[in-house]
């Protein structure tokens, strides 16, 4: 559940007192530094950013704020800060998700979608050449939002990430994207999830034509049609008795 009082941080105080544009601009400068932040720094920051989204009213400002907050990811200049910032985001969302009421859920779901996209986009920088950053980020997805066994990660959060995973990866992916590696967190969740409903949700996501192509899975229906056509051709060959002399 959102906290009743904002943390003691100047950026957060600005955010929750409805001067968001100025505060977000300051935050961009703050986060673009190469100086390492501690995990506690990022958790305190996300405590306030969550409260900022919580108190943001009306669809258009909510959408703009979600996009502004997800755009912060691109400004993180080091792998350590990227992983630390996104880890704090997922930790905060997993912790607060059960307390989000139905009237506020849509804006948080959009923010989650935006962060799935932003994480992939960060990994795509420099033509996907930063293998270590990609590995650490995918491990983070396996650890928190797509964790197959941790009861502290709400199933509703897992369902939403599963729902948007392929869509957001497609927006970022290109011919250099290591799709099989990028799909690994989703595939692993489908194999190891405790709940059948989660495994079923992953199965539905992996049944998408895009996912099948990325993972090199042939479409069973298309394969069956091809096999039927081949069988028909073989039957015709068997029925052909040759030309009369």
TrEMBL record:
Pfam families recorded: Nop52
Any single Gene Ontology cellular-component annotation? preribosome, small subunit precursor
Listed Acidic residues bias regions: 216-245
Region described as Disordered: spans on this chain: 211-245
What the entry lists under InterPro entries is as follows: RRP1 (IPR010301)
Which cellular compartments is it found in?
A: Nucleus
Keyword entries, A-Z: Nucleus, rRNA processing
Main subcellular location of this protein, as a coarse class = nucleus
Q: Might you name a Gene Ontology BP term for this protein?
A: rRNA processing
- The keyword DNA damage appears for this protein: no
Family, as annotated: Belongs to the RRP1 family.
Protein name, please? Nucleolar
Organism (species): Aureobasidium mustum
């Amino acid at each position: 559940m959102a906290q009743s009082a904002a943390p003691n941080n100047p950026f957060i105080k600005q955010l929750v007192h409805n001067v968001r544009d100025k505060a977000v601009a300051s935050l961009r400068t703050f986060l673009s530094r190469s100086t390492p932040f501690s995990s506690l720094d990022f958790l305190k920051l996300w405590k306030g950013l969550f409260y900022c989204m919580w108190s943001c009213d009306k669809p258009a400002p909510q959408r703009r704020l979600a996009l502004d907050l997800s755009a912060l990811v691109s400004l993180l200049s080091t792998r350590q800060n990227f992983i630390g910032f996104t880890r704090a985001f997922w930790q905060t969302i997993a912790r607060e998700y059960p307390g989000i009421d139905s009237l506020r859920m849509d804006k948080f779901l959009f923010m989650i979608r935006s962060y799935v996209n932003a994480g992939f986009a960060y990994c795509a920088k420099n033509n996907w050449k930063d293998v270590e950053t990609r590995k650490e980020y995918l491990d983070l997805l396996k650890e928190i939002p797509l964790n197959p066994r941790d009861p502290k990660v709400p199933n509703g959060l897992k369902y939403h990430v599963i729902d948007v995973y392929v869509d957001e990866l497609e927006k970022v992916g290109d011919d250099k994207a290591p799709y099989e590696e990028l799909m690994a967190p989703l595939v692993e969740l489908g194999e190891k999830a405790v709940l059948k409903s989660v495994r079923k949700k992953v199965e539905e996501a992996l049944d998408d034509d895009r996912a099948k192509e990325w993972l090199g899975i042939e479409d069973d229906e298309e394969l069956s049609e091809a096999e039927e056509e081949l069988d028909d051709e073989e039957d015709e060959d068997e029925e052909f008795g040759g030309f009369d002399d």
